[in-house]
Structures are given as C-alpha cells and as structure tokens.
Amino acid sequence: DGWANHPRVVFESGMNEPLAHRIYAGAQAFAMPSRFEPCGLSQLIAMRYGTLPVVRETGGLVDTVPEDVGFRFAAATPDALATACRQALTALGDRAGWQARVERAMTLDFSWDGPARHYLDLYGAVLNAERPAAPR
Question: SS3 of 55, please?
Fold first, then answer.
C-alpha cells in the first residue's frame, strides 16, 4: 500500500493556527527536538490528533510522551534526532503497531481531573488528621 514508503517533510515559517491544526491532524509524526522545554503543548496537541511525537528527553516532554507512544532521544544532536526519526519510520512500517501507539496517544489524559481529585483527597486527609499536641 506504500503509505509508509513515501514520507514527506514540510517546513512552514510563521504562525498559522488553522494550518497548524491541519498539519497535526494529517501528519503521522511530529518532531519536537527542544533543547529546553518546561512543558510544551505541541506534543499534547499532536497526540490528541493521533500524531506521534519525536521528542528530546527534556523537561515536560519526558513527562508527557510515554516511550510506548512517541519516540524519544537524549542527546541534543542532529544524529540523535535522525536516529529517533529512523525509529519512527521503522515503526510506521508496522501498521498494527503504529495504530496501537496512535490509539494510546489519543487516550492519554492530561486534564486536571486526576490531579484535582488527588489534591482534594490530600487536603481532606490533612484536615482530618490527628493534630499533635502543641508544645508547652
């Protein structure tokens, strides 16, 4: 069928949000080789669309891109990025494996629902905890 045999790379300069969403939705992979990334939304948006991220292991990218979903690399070098991209292309050739990654990516939950429940439970436990006697 050839869909994995003809990868294309496109570069667009400037900000165009409608085009960005079309790219997220139409791409198989999204490269984000940041040297520094405190959080990052692009990889989250890409995964929601089923586009698998290729990311450098830094900051929020490590926290949000599981190894069974995206493709991660440690060194901030062109060779490391190229190796991760080759791994993604190899994985793209396994249609069932790729689809499993896509489905996992699209079901990840980065909402505040879980953390908010955790904090409410924590605050409740603190409020209900025995208070030690005050020192005299």
Answer: strand
Residue 91 near residue 97 (C-beta atoms within 8 A): yes
pTM of the entire predicted model:
0.78
Residue 72 gets which letter from DSSP? E
- pLDDT over 60 at 3, yes or no: no
Of 34, 79, 86, 25, the residue nearest 55 (C-alpha): 34
3-class state of residue 64 by DSSP:
helix
For residue 36, report the phi and psi dihedrals to the nearest 5 degrees: -145, 130
Mind listing the pLDDT tens digit for each residue in 45-95? 999 999 999 999 999 999 999 999 999 999 999 999 999 999 999 999 999
Q: How far apart are CA 103 and CA 33, in angstroms?
A: 23
Q: Are 14 and 35 contacting, i.e. CB atoms less than 8 angstroms apart?
A: no
80: Cβ–Cβ under 8 A, 6 or more apart, which residues?
Answer: 56, 73, 74
Contact 22, 83 (CB under 8 A): no
Asked if residues 29 and 51 have their Cβ atoms less than 8 Å apart, the reply is yes
